[in-house]
Every structure is written in C-alpha cells, then in structure tokens.
C-alpha cells in the first residue's frame, strides 16, 4: 500500500510541476523576460534563451508530462492490482483520473499563470538541462511537426497591442493621462505625410529675392515668422530661406541696399509624400527648422517646420507671436481632417 501511495504522489507531483512550468512559460511575455535578462542573473538569462526558442523546452515538458501521466498510470495500475481487490480497482482508477485532472493539470496551470514570473525563473535552468537530456526525442518530434511550423514567424507585438496596453495601464493607474496621450500620438507620425502637416502654398509668406532690403523693411517688421521664404521670379523658384533676425541685423548695420537673395540661406526640399516620422529625423540630421515641400511635378506645395511635426506629438503649440487666427491654422485644420478620416483623432 505504501508503494502505491508513493507512486501516486510522484505522478501527481511530477505532472503538477510540468503543467505549472508550461503555464508559466507561456504566460510570461517575451518583452518582460527581456527586461528581466537586463539584470544578467543566470536564471533570467536562461529564461530568455528558453523564450527565444520556446518550441524545444515546451516539447521537453510535454514529453516529461506524458511520461508521468502514461507510464505513471501503468505503474500505479500494476501496483493497485496487487494491493487492491478487483472491486476497488475501478473506483481507484476513477479517483486517480480525477486527481490527475485536478492536481496535475488545473490547479498547477492556474498557479503557473498567477505566479508566472517566479515559477518561470525557478524552472528555467532545470528546464534547459531537461531539454538537452531529451534532445534526441525532441529532434525526432521537430522533424515530424516541421510541415506544421512553416510560414512567417508571428510578431512579438504590434501598434494596436501597445496602444491597448497603454490604455489598460492608464485605467489601472500605472500611466498618467499625459503619458497615454503622448504614446497614442507617437503612432500618428507614420500615418501622416509632409503634405498633411505643412502650411499650404496659398498661405506661404515670401519675398522677392531681387528686392533690396530697405524696400521690404515694413514687410519684414510685420512678419510673425522667424524664417521667410525668398523666391526669384515665382513661388516655384525658391532661392533660399532668410532668417528674420539676420535681415533686421543687416538693416541696423546700414546694409539696406543688399538684395534679399544675398542674405538668403540655402533651402532644403522634401517631397510631399515623406512620412512625418522620417521628416522629424531629417530635421534632426540637417539641423534646419523649415523645409520646402515639393509636389509630384516639382512645384512648391507648401512649407513644413519642425514645429508642425512636433505638434503631432504635443498638440498645438502657441507662443507669444501667434495670433488668434494665423496662416498655419489652415494646416492644423487639414491635419485634423486627415486624422479623422483615418480614424486617428488627435488625442
């Protein structure tokens, strides 16, 4: 009778450990495991190695679990036939089946899901040794199941999942409202093009490059922009960008006879199809604040500033020079329309 009780306990315990470990490994996200691995702890590094190639460790757990359940049941059955009378064997088999289902599967998997991180770390290193021990069997199983594993690998996560996690984090108090809004706006960058955030052609403030500085003094003083587009014979012939501060400094220095084209800096041109996230990188790379946006025919479609792109992330930026109704309001209204059409209302 003692041998029967010990065998039953070993089978239940072995099955429970396998089930709990399997549930813990499957429940713990790969991103969380990578965070744990940054501590360089041996258990965390072993867990990361398992999660990055999880098929073999899972196969090892399945093999071991079935050894406990199948071979264990055979051994227990032979012991029960020796100890119990034939009338009790059926009842014992029913009770054993119930115990395996309850304490070998349901309860361990529930605990494995609830305490996934702790159990996964504890079982990581033993599981790596078990995988190596059962490698010949696993190798055969891999070749048998290879046709079912063909195809592109699944992504760890995507934009929708990250935004959902951010929303859940906000609901649970882990993420503040302003942090949630910033996260949601970040994903709008690659959904917008330069044409969506630019100030359109009809609203561009520009001056003629052939004019002398003194003749356009009033226009320079009245301009609310820190950068002014300088053109030759038409708006499609942009010859550069002039800084308002440099123009005013030239006026104060008595250089009013200079042509505006002589004071203009080279302009940087971008296509209207460039994405806003790429545009932000370009602003950082070339260290400019304003780009000329070209349409598909090479004509000027508008101008886009660093502020236009940043407003996608932060919302509308208003400083002391902005008016209640300014020229850039056209671009802002257009951007809101596009976001609404794409189901990406500004946060």
What keywords describe this structure?
16 helices; three-stranded mixed beta sheet; 2 domains; CBS-domain; alpha/beta; four-stranded mixed beta sheet; 347 residues
Question: Could you write a compact summary of the structure shown?
Answer:
The protein is α/β, with parallel strands linked by helices.
What is the strand arrangement across the widest sheet? 1-7-6-5
Please give the CATH class of the largest domain.
Answer: Alpha Beta
* Derived structural class: alpha/beta
H/E element order: HHHHHHHHHHEEHEEHHEHEEHH
CATH topology term of the largest domain: CBS-domain
What's the CATH H-level superfamily name of the largest domain?
Answer: CBS-domain
Number of strands: 7
Q: What fraction, in percent, of the residue positions are helical? A: 55-70%
What is the overall number of helices? 16
CATH architecture of the largest domain: Roll
Strand content: 5-15%
Whole-angstrom Rg:
34 Å
Task: Give the CA-based shape.
Answer: rod-shaped
How widely separated are the two ends?
A: 69 Å
Describe the biggest sheet?
A: 4 strands, mixed
Protein name: HlyC/CorC family transporter
Membrane topology: Multi-pass membrane protein
Pfam families: CBS, CNNM
Domain CNNM transmembrane: 1-179
């Amino acid at each position: 009778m003692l041998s029967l009780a010990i065998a039953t306990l070993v089978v239940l315990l072995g099955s429970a450990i396998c089930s709990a470990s399997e549930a813990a490994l499957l429940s713990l996200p790969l991103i969380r495991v990578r965070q744990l691995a940054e501590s360089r702890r041996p258990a965390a590094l072993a867990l990361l190695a398992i999660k990055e190639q999880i098929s073999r460790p899972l196969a090892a757990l399945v093999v071991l679990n079935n050894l406990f359940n199948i071979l264990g049941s055979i051994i227990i059955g032979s012991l029960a036939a020796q100890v119990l009378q034939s009338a009790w064997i059926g009842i014992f088999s029913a009770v054993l089946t119930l115990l395996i289902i309850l304490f070998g599967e349901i309860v361990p998997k529930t605990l494995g899901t609830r305490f996934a991180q702790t159990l996964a770390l504890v079982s990581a290193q033993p599981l790596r040794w078990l995988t190596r021990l059962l490698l010949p069997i696993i190798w055969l199983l891999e070749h048998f199941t290879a046709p079912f594993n063909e195809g592109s690998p699944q992504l760890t996560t995507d934009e929708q999942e990250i935004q959902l996690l951010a929303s859940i984090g906000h609901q649970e108090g882990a993420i503040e409202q302003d942090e949630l809004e910033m996260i949601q706006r970040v994903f709008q960058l690659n959904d917008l093009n330069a044409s969506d955030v630019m100030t359109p052609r009809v609203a561009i403030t520009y001056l003629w490059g052939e004019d002398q500085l003194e003749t356009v003094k009033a226009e320079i003083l009245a301009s609310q922009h820190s950068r002014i587009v300088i053109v030759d014979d038409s708006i499609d012939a942009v010859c550069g960008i002039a800084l308002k501060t440099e123009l005013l400094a030239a006026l104060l220095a008595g250089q009013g006879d200079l042509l505006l084209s002589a004071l203009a800096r080279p302009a940087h041109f971008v296509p209207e199809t460039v994405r806003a996230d790429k545009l932000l990188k370009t602003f950082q790379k070339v260290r400019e604040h304003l780009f000329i946006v070209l349409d598909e025919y090479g004509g000027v479609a508008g101008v886009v500033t660093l502020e236009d792109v940043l407003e996608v992330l932060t919302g509308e930026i208003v400083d002391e020079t902005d008016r209640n109704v300014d020229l850039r309001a056209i671009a802002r209204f257009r951007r809101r329309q596009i976001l609404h059409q794409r189901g990406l209302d500004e946060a």
